[in-house]
């Protein structure tokens, strides 16, 4: 590859992506920057409301970004959306200030951790097994409970007062259910205690050398017994077996027990992000 080739390719991908979004009518552009807004089918189907995703692609200034975001809010209203979510790199203070100025509220803080392949990959832990279709409903209930209980989880759905609690439960129940033989994960591991599912971890096998853990939790009753450590060991062993060079997980900044487990196994922080949201009430009304 010629010097700078990777940068040119990245720039070309960005241009193609912008053109695609422009053709789809998703972009709001101006001197203040560029924002993309679109309907988020996953949230709509699970939460029972018209929800959208906003991407602050570029904010040149706090004021310019705020004005652009307010235009994006109007565009979302015209599309029938009643709720918007925006994920932002935690280093983007200009974007964060613009979002706050446009009426968005911070909902969660995320950190991405990664473990790189060791010289001698360890064995699969004996106390962990693969989930089967027979586990689907029990797994769905466990996931719904773990991720919809305040204090047990700090996810952006649970922290948003504009989202129905029943909808939050359905998001995580469906996510877990479709992680067994479905599109949400390639494999799911579980641990049991006293005949009950006590914890689980879903895994996407490596693509371009990177495996990812989309969803994982241990029931509050069974925490402190090392179950999560065994689940992560299982995910790493399976990933190495399939040729992964790195395994990544995204967790809430407040989940220190999760982070300590990954640190213990060689995990290093890769990046961090913020999630913001806003309910789109009537113009001039609550949430407007």
Summarize the structure.
The protein is an alpha+beta fold and 288 residues long.
Please, could you describe this protein's structure?
This protein is α+β, with helices and mostly antiparallel strands and 288 residues long. It has 2 domains: 5-103, Aminopeptidase; 114-273, Gcn5-related N-acetyltransferase (GNAT) (Aminopeptidase). It is built from 8 helices and 12 strands. Strands 1, 2, 3, 4, 5, 6, 7, 8, 9, 10, 11 and 12 form a 12-stranded mixed sheet that branches. It starts with a helix and ends in a 9-residue tail after the last strand.
Keywords:
8 helices, globular, 288 residues, 35% helix, Aminopeptidase, alpha+beta
Radius of gyration: 20 Å
Helix/strand order: HEEHEHEHEEHHEEEEHEHE
Distance between the termini: 50 Å
The overall strand count is 12
Helix share, percent = 25-40%
At CATH level 3, the topology of the largest domain is Aminopeptidase
Strand content: 25-35%
The overall pLDDT, averaged over residues, is 91
CATH superfamily of the largest domain: Gcn5-related N-acetyltransferase (GNAT)
Shape: globular
CATH architecture tag of the largest domain: 3-Layer(aba) Sandwich
What layout of secondary structure does this protein have?
Layout: H1 5-23, E1 27-30, E2 33-39, H2 41-47, E3 51-59, H3 62-78, E4 83-89, H4 93-101, E5 105-116, E6 129-130, H5 136-147, H6 165-177, E7 187-193, E8 196-207, E9 210-213, E10 216-218, H7 227-241, E11 246-252, H8 256-264, E12 268-279
Parallel strand pairs: 3-4, 9-11
Antiparallel strand pairs: 1-2, 2-3, 4-12, 5-11, 5-12, 6-7, 7-8, 8-9, 8-10
Helix pairs in contact: 2-6, 3-4, 5-6
């Amino acid at each position: 590859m010629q010097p700078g080739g990777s940068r040119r390719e990245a720039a070309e991908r960005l241009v193609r992506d912008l053109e695609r979004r422009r053709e789809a009518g998703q972009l709001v552009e101006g001197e203040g920057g560029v924002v993309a807004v679109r309907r988020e089918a996953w949230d709509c189907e699970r939460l029972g409301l018209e929800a959208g995703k906003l991407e602050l692609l570029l904010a040149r200034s706090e004021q310019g970004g705020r004005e652009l975001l307010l235009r994006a809010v109007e565009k979302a209203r015209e599309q029938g959306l009643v709720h918007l979510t925006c994920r932002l790199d935690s280093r983007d203070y200009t974007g964060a200030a613009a979002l706050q100025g446009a009426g968005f509220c911070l909902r969660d803080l995320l950190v991405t951790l990664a473990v790189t392949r060791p010289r001698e990959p360890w064995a699969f832990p004996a106390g962990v097994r693969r989930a089967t279709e027979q586990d689907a409903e029990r797994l769905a209930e466990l996931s719904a409970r773990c991720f919809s209980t305040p204090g047990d989880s700090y996810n952006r759905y649970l922290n948003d007062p504009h989202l129905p609690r029943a909808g939050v439960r359905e998001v995580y129940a469906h996510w877990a259910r479709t992680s067994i033989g479905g599109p949400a994960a390639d494999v799911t591991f579980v641990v049991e205690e006293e005949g009950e599912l006590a914890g689980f971890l879903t895994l996407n096998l490596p693509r371009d050398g990177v495996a990812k853990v989309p969803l994982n939790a241990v029931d509050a009753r069974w925490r402190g017994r090392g179950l999560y450590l065994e689940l992560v060991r299982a995910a790493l062993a399976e990933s190495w077996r399939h040729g992964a060079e790195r395994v990544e997980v995204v967790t809430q900044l407040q989940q220190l027990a999760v982070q300590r487990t990954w640190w213990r196994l060689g995990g290093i922080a890769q990046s961090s992000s913020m999630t913001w949201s806003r309910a789109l009430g009537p113009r001039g009304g609550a949430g407007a």
